[in-house]
Write a structure and sequence with these properties.
There is one protein chain. The chain is an alpha/beta fold. It has 2 domains: 35-177 and 350-372, Rossmann fold (3-Layer(aba) Sandwich); 180-343, Rossmann fold (3-Layer(aba) Sandwich), CATH 3.40.50. The chain contains 11 helices and 8 strands. It has helices at 50-57, 65-77, 84-101, 119-128, 145-162, 180-200, 221-225, 238-258, 293-300, 320-336, 351-366, and strands at residues 35-40, 108-112, 133-138, 169-172, 210-217, 273-278, 307-311, 340-343. Helix 3 (84-101) packs across helix 11 (351-366), helix 4 packs across helix 5 (145-162) and helix 6 (180-200) runs antiparallel to helix 11 (351-366). The chain is globular and about 65 Å long. Fe-coproporphyrin III binds at residues 82, 151. Belongs to the ferrochelatase family.
């Protein structure tokens, strides 16, 4: 059953601004926003926070306490502090500086899904400061339940929990996986890593002796299949995998061009690469996207590979999954197999990324037509208003969500 609570007066998108409430794919009407809502995942900032934080993240999923304790050891290895909150503080400051540099009067309010400051706190702050029209920037670039729709559900929940659904409207910028501001830091990282490998390994053949592994968070196969609008006709891994693969192709082409590598006959990439996954947390009986990055590295053993470049393509900053699963486990697996290995940077507060996020906000403020919006793959520019049924969570069903057509 479709939940249409909160949708009135012929609107199709709950708590949207007038320009977005009818659900166009791309909003071409300018909107005078009051503030930017920076929406983060959240993370613990001390040993006592770790288990409560993990309970927040896994709420409703039936994860046993012993599994939480196992994951907690990753956080305790770093003193119980996830880097993600500090990164979001840095990103907030960088966005404010870029807005000030351009003379744009848009305050930035920060709220998290799973830890203090919570999304409801951000909504209350907006109300206290007299802001009623917010444009949200979620710190997640791709389409899936956990990377898009769950944020939209949290916006709806925050308005309901605070009693502010009748006062505040929240729109959201498009998923920015193929915006040049997000992609450029990865191009720079892969280019620099290939140069480093070639400098440090004698007579390295980039066409056969190095492998670029584009890593992203694994998700349940059922969620992957439902990622993105079903009308787009993606394969069984959905928009989530398709978006990553499309961006990886762009990154490889640009990095290889920067190194003046010869394009193979018939096109494609000179340097071997593959999309791999990490950080799965479901039971063995539940299929998740594969291959796991460590399995992929092990599979390279015994072949011509001498070097591995690990690219955290699915992450905007150095999350715990980057620091533990890549910097610890994946690099250790590479060392075990005798591979030279390096992990490239996440966008963090790279000027290209920060500038790109502000540009995404201005797209909506100014109602920029779709044909004038920058994108580096054929999949974009992605939708301003999510399509009906986009990124369904098969296990939980559809909950009320903002910034998208119901359900």
């Amino acid at each position: 059953m479709t939940d249409t609570s909160g949708i009135t007066n012929g609107e199709l998108v709950r708590n949207a601004t007038p320009a977005a409430e009818r659900g166009p794919e791309h909003v071409s009407e300018p909107t005078d926003y009051d503030a930017i809502l920076l929406a983060g995942f959240g993370g613990p900032e001390g040993q006592d926070d770790v288990i409560p934080f993990l309970r927040n993240v896994t709420r409703g999923r039936g994860i046993p306490e012993e599994r939480l304790e196992e994951v907690a050891t990753h956080y305790r290895h770093f003193g119980g502090v996830s880097p993600i909150n500090e990164h979001n503080r840095e990103l907030k400051a960088a966005l404010e500086a870029e807005l000030q540099r351009r003379g744009i009067d848009l305050p930035v309010i920060w709220g998290n899904r799973n830890w203090d400051p919570y999304m409801a706190d951000a909504v209350r702050e907006a109300d206290q400061r007299g802001f009623t029209k917010l444009i949200a920037v979620a710190t997640s670039a791709y389409s899936s339940y956990s990377s898009c729709r769950q944020y939209r559900e949290d916006f709806a929940m925050a308005l309901d929990d605070t009693g502010l659904a009748d006062k505040i409207q929240i729109d959201k910028v498009r998923q920015f996986f193929d915006h040049p501001g997000f992609v450029q830091p990865f191009i720079d990282g892969v280019r620099d890593a290939l140069l480093k490998a070639r400098a440090e390994l004698d007579d390295l053949d980039l066409s056969s002796e190095i492998q670029v592994l584009f890593a992203t968070h694994s998700i349940p196969s059922t969620d992957a299949a439902k990622s993105g609008p079903q009308s787009r006709g993606f394969d069984a891994d959905g928009a989530y995998a398709a978006q990553h693969k499309a961006v990886a192709e762009v990154v490889m082409a640009a990095a290889e061009a920067a190194l003046d590598l010869e394009i193979p006959e018939g096109g494609g990439s000179t340097v071997p690469w593959q999309l791999v996954y990490q950080s799965r947390s479901g039971p063995p009986s539940m299929p998740w996207l594969e291959p796991d990055i460590n399995d992929a590295i092990d599979d390279l053993a015994g072949g011509p590979t001498r070097a591995v470049v690990i690219v955290p393509l699915g992450f905007v900053s150095d999350h715990m999954e980057v620091m533990w699963d890549l910097d610890n486990e994946a690099l250790e697996t590479s060392e075990k197999n005798g591979f030279w290995a390096v992990r490239t940077p996440t966008p963090g507060i790279d000027p290209n990324y920060v500038t790109g996020l502000v540009d995404l906000v201005l797209e909506r403020r100014d109602g920029v037509p779709a044909e004038d919006r920058p994108h580096v793959t054929d999949l974009g520019p992605w939708y301003d208003v999510c399509r009906p049924g986009c990124c369904e969570n098969v296990r939980l069903g559809f909950k009320p969500a903002l910034s998208g057509l119901v359900p």
